[in-house]
Write a structure and sequence with these properties.
The complex is a heterodimer of chains A (about 110) and B (about 110). Helix content of chain A is about 0%, strand content about 45%. Chain A has about 110 residues and is mostly beta strands. In chain A, the strands form two sheets. A five-stranded mixed β-sheet of chain A has the order 1-9-8-3-4, with no helix packed on it. Chain A has a four-stranded antiparallel β-sheet with strand order 2-7-6-5, with no helix packed on it. Chain A is globular. In chain B, strands 2, 4, 5, 6, 9, 10 and 11 form a seven-stranded mixed β-sheet that branches. In chain B, strand 4 and strand 5 form a beta hairpin. In chain B, about 35% of the residues are buried. Chain B has no helices and eleven strands. Chain B is globular and about 40 Å long. The termini of chain B are far apart. Classes of the chains: A mainly beta (about 110), B mainly beta (about 110). The interface between A and B is medium-sized, with 23 and 31 residues.
Chain lengths: ~110, ~110
Amino acid sequence: DAKTTQPPSMDCAEGRAANLPCNHSTISGNEYVYWYRQIHSQGPQYIIHGLKNNETNEMASLIITEDRKSSTLILPHATLRDTAVYYCIVRLSDAGNNRKLIWGLGTSLAVNP
Amino acid sequence: DAGITQSPRYKITETGRQVTLMCHQTWSHSYMFWYRQDLGHGLRLIYYSAAADITDKGEVPDGYVVSRSKTENFPLTLESATRSQTSVYFCASTFDRSGNTEAFFGQGTRLTVV
């Protein structure tokens, strides 16, 4: 699985959009981009994933560049409860490939009032 | 309640003792995973299981034993606990299928070995 690079920390004002970048320049054509977050003292929580196209769900939007070498997770209206560590991971789609996930240190997002 | 649950949430044990961390999921997910999380490290895979009676090592398996006699349970045993095994342990599960196969995580067990 490809490795990812994320900034160690970011700040965002409450109510504003939070844009979290991720570089995955070695991603292969059939690897998906997954985003998880981990709120303090809790287990990681799935947010969203995508392959090529931009994706949106009730939690966030995922923008993947055309060359797929980077992506951005967008939290459109950040709240204090979005303060967490956000992990960007790339992997093949089959469930067994969860065993190959490389979890970096993620981006620690602080949403400020 | 549906979901994935870990027990205990907190545990303090002495060096050399055997301790078992429990993980139970109600979805009949095929895959289950055990991770440990330490400061300065991302989640590291200890063991995983593709189905009942099928287990395999992950990145950091030494000192740990797992079993999977039933699909819904995946206990992790530290045979002789050491201080280096002080960590937060997370269990996860996922369906066995293509496409959207995100992992669902338990709340974690904070283990302290003294």
